[in-house]
Amino acid sequence: MSLTDRILDGxxxxxxxRLVNNIANGLLLLLLARxxxxxxxxxxxxxxxSIVAVAQLGADLGLARSAARYISEKKETEPxxxxxxxxxxxxxxxLLLGVVAVVLIATRDILATVLEIPELSTLMWLAAGYLIVQxxxxxxMSLFQGFNRVNLSAVLEVxxxxxxxxxxxxxxxxxLGVAGALFGYILGAAxxxxxxxxxxxxxxxxxxxxxxGTKSLRNRMLEYxxxxxxxxxxxILDRQIDTILVAFFINPVAVSYYVLSKxxxxxxxxxxxSLGFSVSPAYGEExxxxxxxxxxxxxxxxLQYMFLLYIPxxxxxxxxxxxxxxxxxGTEYAGAAPVLQVLSVYVVFQAITGVTxxxxxxxxxxxxxxxxxxxxxxxxxxxxIVLIPIYGVTGAAAATVLTFGLYTLxxxxxxxxxxxxxxxxxxxxxxxxxxxxxxxxxxxLFLVPYASSIPALFGVIAVGIAIWGVLVTASGVIDxxxxxxxxx
Length: 488
What we know:
It is a multi-pass membrane protein. By secondary structure, the chain is mainly α. 88% of the residues lie in helices and 0% in strands. Helix 6 crosses helix 7 (150-205), helix 11 (292-329) runs parallel beside helix 16 and helix 12 (337-354) runs parallel beside helix 15. The radius of gyration is 22 Å and the shape is globular. It starts with a helix and ends with a helix.
């Protein structure tokens, strides 16, 4: 199978899974926000999930991604050490998990006092359980990526997200509130983790002759996990600490506005994250084969598609945010509309970063990315502290856009230093796609006042997509027939 075919197969599997996952999560989001939880409870649930995500940093420490990087390399050149890499990384992961879970439980009263949310003291017991299963789930996701079997990662995602919906909705409908919802998250991740253990053991661990490993290999894996830890930690700070700061400076209701807006952007970003997850191992393979020029063309083409999808998407989100939020989630979430409008710019930056960062890890540039992420994440925290008291939850969104935009530019520059990108080609695609977005945006702007009901809203969105399709085809920026042929 050719490299292109493998990338496309992985992309299709990952995209299909993430579409299923996001439909499931979108349904869960709608049911929780509109029917099952108050906006105060909704904000509390995702405050806890953000705390768990930050705590997970201490349990992960970049070990899974470091192991995945070495597995990707060694399975081609020295396959007998693969079982050693799996065994060693899992052993360290379990040790760290135990320590962090104990710390999380021990500090539950302090968290409840600092955030002025008394319910946290009790709910942190469930949060510790969620930390354990979620961390092990993400471990398997990373290792399957290292084996270049992202289709198996896709299977785990479907198991986690679909069963999560069933458990969360069922337990919350029984009147268990936030505790029931959190326990539903635990059950979904636990089932995916169990499936991951079985697949990892049967498909990979026993497939390779176990030749053991050396302390040198273990130390290199641990050493490479340091910059991965730094960059991943900074990424989590970017994505989660702002939620905690909103809870600290304002209240869980404001958290619900912020989290809801971010969840909408995550739904839109499914194609970017799917493609980035699928294509990233190819950069490491091409570098190992001294085919950097081919890797550069792959990345440039990937960027071209990201521009084509997400610059128009950002314009559309900016224009329909207000009617979409109030019609779909209710007027009590109207405060999320300006937040979503600001985050429309973040969508473009996140799409570019989504197809860049993991590729840099496989190219061996995790340390450089970690420095950039560390600086921008600290800046993000500082801007949040300054802007939230002044502008409220919209200030948190603005801080995210400003700092993440800078991080995106640095990532692209680092990728260029590795692959010598053709910026003329990239710039031409950016200008042409921006023109297409403007043409589509003018049409949607005229129709937005008529979006007074959910069917009318989706009608406006459908018209915008149709106009986008016509402009893309007329511009010749891609050949639709060739694209459809590749994806089928």
